[in-house]
Amino acid sequence: MNDITIPASSTAIARRIVQSWRTGKSNYVLVTPPLTDATCIIDRLVDEQFYEQCELAPEVPAVARFRAGRIDNANTFISGVVAQWDPMGVVQREGSDIGANLRKVVQFLKRSGRTPVLVIEAFHQAVRTLTWDVGTALRTLEHSLQLKTVVELPVKLSTLRMRWAVQRGEPTFLASDFGQGHSTLVLGTYEPSEVAALVAEYGLTDWRAKMVTELCGGLPDLTGWLAREAQYYDSPASLRRYVERGAPDICDRFLKWLDAPAEAAFTRTLARMHEGGPMNKVFATIDKHEWADFMLDETGSLRSSILGLAAVQKLAQRESGASGFANEARGVGTITTISPLIFPEGEARRPIALMANAKPETIVVAATCWGVRYGGINSFNLEFCRALAAQGKSKRRVICLVPRDEDILEEMDGVEVIAIRRDGNEGFFQFDTQLALSALKDISTVRFVVGHDLKSGTFAQSLASALEVKSIAFCHMAYAAYYSMTKSSEDGAKKVEDQRKLFSKADAIFAVGPKLVKHVKALMRTIPSKANTFEYLPDLLSMAPVTSPRPIACITYIGRLGSGAELVKQGTLAVTAIGAALKRTKLHDPLVQVIGGSDAENETDYKELVNREANRLVNTQFLAFNNSREKALGYIMDSSLVVMPSVHDGFGLVGWEAISLGIPLIISTNTGLYEHLKQLGLHSYVGAVDIRGSMAKPNEADVNALSDKIFAKLSDPAQAHADAAMLLARLRESDQMTMERFDRNTEHVFKSSADASLSA
């Protein structure tokens, strides 16, 4: 998070904890209600500069930081703690006596004048794998050797004990005395001045700023979510509809933790407070909940009406899905056209039951290949179509049109892939529209046609026009930002104008990531257009990530080498900096992979470049792009580090894939992916480099900066892997709801026709 998005209350909590390390006892339970994020606090607990701000010598704390979800068992946990406290292996450990080994290392640190600290994030996940003797050992060290501890939980430790005992029998760890006497701190909300600064950061004014402020009540995740989304809506009514539809998803985890399993007392109270019903018969008042200060303002009213709305909708869903709950749910009512609005003023909203399409819809997507033959856009299309089909299931038919039979290279996985020609040249042509109409002649439920930028966008618009349906264009490229770097100015200007013409005719534009959203807005500001522009973020891959660092280093760069458009990717810079970094390491048998470099001219010269920079022989492989999606991702998964030093990248799909697979990443700051991570406050988990770029020999400053980042990752592979795992976990928790957002945004585009059919 940047300074604007970090609540002042979180900084105060971090300062209190760090300053307490100078005292005898410092053991905290950090309660992090869903819709908050403790990452900014935990990051400060390992930040030497923050120690200095707290007037604590930075060399004193010895912090072992763990995310509980990465703990396999008690022994690996203890080994990991010891390895962080004693990375050089000075202390000799013997046998499997957990308490004795921990005590040895803690005593060693204290004799060295250091303060041992143990920080565990998402601690509720650890109780599945840790044992009673671990809890007892930690508790003993807290008292006898003043071990400092911080554990993060969504609820108090005592609450967790009660809930686990009821739900599945008390785990052995929770049977220990760990946690008794710990101080409990609960994360708070934004102050009004902080909300004002945040909405200003997103450029929100007038009614948008007011809605974010009034609806979210300063709850951090709600405020950040709505501030990001509000810029894409053109009226209070349209934004209100989006909020009402999104409330159940964004508040789902909050409501799951609000009550104990199989209970709903606090949820019913939230719903009743939202609807203004009588409070004399409620079973649990919110002021008795451990999150009370988070949910209620100074007057005892709900801070955020979104919470109340989500509670109402959850109870309504239970009523429709479980008859045994019906009587309870009827006590708070369901969403109907006469239910109170989330805002008191404005037009009446649509009933939730009417939001679904009455008939199954067909969505047609045009792509130059069903596979990864041509690179990133095709990879994106595979995941997009499959996710689109999975989201719609029986209510949606997804058809991907490709030019030729030979362009179908992958399994279809729920998507109907149709080649409109048997053979011919690659890509789409004007006559292909008529062939596509023939292929679709028996389908009457096409809702819209999707095209990918200039690759298939023009064909998609031609087909949509012939079918008399809407067209959607994806923006994957910012030609205005880079094309003339490597091509003639005339060619660059033509690309920009072709893209502007394409987008001006679209009914909606989906830009991949925040950088391309700004590009579209800059491109379209001088011409009239009917198109709404929305941000689209790809789903994380569903493949299981790696679970440990690669024991032998493998540094991977994906992209061609040489002149022309490849200069944007700065491949020569990548191999130069990799070699320079290897010169400083003592790694044995490192492997350098250049994927896409098998056709590079003078491959031997590039190998010699790596060897010369490394001052030794290095095994460097130049491999072809693989047409198999599985094998292409396998290259990334087999890496210990992926390097992406582009001078510009609209998004950076390879980096997103590396993150999805748990692989450490170094990326240029001038990419949409880096901007997205920075907006979420997660950019510190990747190596980031400001690349200046060069048309010939790599810029010396770029080589030094990039090689420094590579060296840092290679020097501490355990930390690099931990950062990658943490980044993936935080992104999964952010629950970006890609397809849900896409569906809501397309419904926004078609709301006029949908409203007309409803009123009829």
TrEMBL record:
TM region(s), chain numbering: none
SUPFAM superfamilies to which the protein is assigned, alphabetical: UDP-Glycosyltransferase/glycogen phosphorylase
CDD domains, per the entry: GT4_PimA-like
Pfam families attached to this UniProt entry: GT4-conflict (PF20706)
GO molecular function: transferase activity
PANTHER family associated with the record: GLYCOSYLTRANSFERASE (PTHR12526)
Protein name per the record: Glycosyltransferase family 4 protein
